[in-house]
Structure formats: C-alpha cells, structure tokens
User: What shape does this take?
Amino acid sequence: MFIVIRYFRDFLSYSSNLFIPKMVLLFSGILILLTSSQAYSLENFKVLQTNTITDQSGFIHLFGEIRNISNESQYDVAIHAIFIDKNGQNIGNASGLASVRSLNTGQISPFEIIFLDKDKSKQFSDYALNFTSKVGNQKPDSIVVTSSKSKPDIFGYYYVSGRVSNVGNETATNVLAIASFYDNNGKIIGLSSAIAEPNNMTSHTEASFTIVMDDKIQSSKIKNYSLTIDSDQYVTKQS
Assistant: This one.
C-alpha cells in the first residue's frame, strides 16, 4: 500500500528540480495542482489505523485515524486515496477531510473516504494515501467533556449524547462534537458528528450534543467510542 506513497514522495523531490509550467504534476493519471498555500505533506501525518467497509449499496467506505506528527498545527487536512486492483492498477480516486478541522501537534483525527464507483468497487484490492494541509495555529484544549452516555434504540440507530464546558476566556464558535466508533477488536467502523447546542459558547458556559450513528449494520458491532470536541478557538485534550 505504501509503495505508491514512497514513489510519489520521490517524484515530488525530483520534480522540485524541474521547471513545470503552471506547477502542474501528473502522477499515475492524477492531475495534481501545487499551490503556495496548500501542498502535499506526506511527512506531516502518521496513519494510525484504517478499515474498509462495503455498505449495502456497494460503496466502499475507507475509515481511518491520522496523527499530526509535524511541529506545527495543520488545518484543512485532506486525505486522498488511490484505489488499486489486485494487479496494482489504479481503478479510481477519492478524497475526504479530517473530521477535526485543525490538528494540533500530536493530535489525532478520524476520517472517512467514500469510493462511489460501484462497478470498480468490485475490483478493489488495496489503496494508497497521501495528504494535503495548511499550517495553522495551535488551539488551547479549553473545551472539556463533562458527561457522555451512549445507547442503541429499537430501530438500530446508536446515540451518543453529552455535555461540554468552555473553560477558556474566549467565546468558542462553531462547536462540533465528533464521535469515532470501534468494534470489539478496536477497529474503527464508523464516525459521525453533530453541532453543539448552543453552537457558540461564551466563556464558562455549557452546551449539549447528540450524535447519531445511522448505519444500522455497523451500529450493532459498536463496542466503544471516542469523542473529540472541536471549535474555531478551542479543542478537547486527547489522552
């Protein structure tokens, strides 16, 4: 899986010594645009785990978790997947965003990528990942989860609800609760998110959230979950 990534990194290193009009690179049939504000950052992230699930409609969902291993905060983190058949041929590409909108150094975010070509999905065997991101500012860990609970309902949906507190001195805006779901083996099998109520939290106030996992097949396999609360100013501390 990571052979493609290594070749891609070597190609970028080599191409830096070449003049390529409009900074357009062609790699394995993929058109890649490089700009000064956003660049491929293979060295900034570590993939902690991945898991592929095919849903009832035949679409492939690639779930995973990445850690920011760079010395700087990274935001607008996009994960790009090249899907490969058993012969090593590219059968398609898809991308997704890290659920945590800005990753501090050492912080983890889940992600989901959906491959929407059902015909090509039948040929799927492997994949390779690369990333784009922008350098941002470190966020204080001034949002705290004060309580949480989870339960399935009679219809097969899985709910996670709780309360969060803004212990910082600034208003936290666009507060988002993110849940990653794991099976009995600790593999990520889904993720979901919900906007907190209220969405903007003034200093030393609380908000509530309710997250719904609506994949009934995977909901029945949930054994554990983790929570991250994100906002424009603050983020929860990860253990």
User: Anything to note?
Assistant: The first strand starts at residue 24 and ends at 27. Residues 1-39 have pLDDT under 50 and may be disordered. The longest helix spans residues 3-15. The chain is about 10% helix and 50% strand.
